[in-house]
Task: structure prediction
Amino acid sequence: MARRALDEVRHSRRCFALARAYPGLPWSAGAIPELAQERPQQPGPDEGDAWARLVRGSLLEGCLGEGLAASVAGEASRRASGPVVRETLAVISEDEGRHAELAWDIIAFAPERGGGKARQALRQALDALETRRTPALPNIPGVDESFLETNGVLPQPELGRLMDECVQRTRERAGACLEPGRTWWPVPIARAS
Ligand SMILES: [Fe+2]
Result:
């Protein structure tokens, strides 16, 4: 299994362990019926083009989505009061930041390797950034907002601020990848001697 997928499993385990610490009850993932449902079929004009799917998914889910996850977890870690919550969120933030950078590698090489189709896909994905909405916190009746904040859950306005920042950063960095003459060179992976 890819390291990224194992990271997500580790995040889930740590979060369920944290959740258990509050009421003393074991929590685990239940069934996710949405996964069994067919996704809505709404082919866009670029459907069927592998570059379009790769670039759009990388920019929106990777660069923006995982970049936002890294920002949110990092800020939540700094505001949390308990050392276990802080450390858990710091680990998640670091992992998500690394996941986002993998997506940025794709965005960086796509315009050169995929030619006009990839550049067009990147322009369309940049337009789609504007349609992304801030994730909404679930309503938890009877739980004070300041309690949530010191336990790793940011207030909704703060989520909105971080989302705006991430959209802006994503737009600027991806836009730079479209600049004429920009060339992507793979960075060799350092090996231990
Ligand atoms: Fe991730």
Remarks:
- Residues 1 and 79 are 33 Å apart (CA to CA).
- Residues 3-19+50-133+150-177 form one domain.
- Helices lie at 3-21, 50-79, 83-128, 145-150, 156-177.
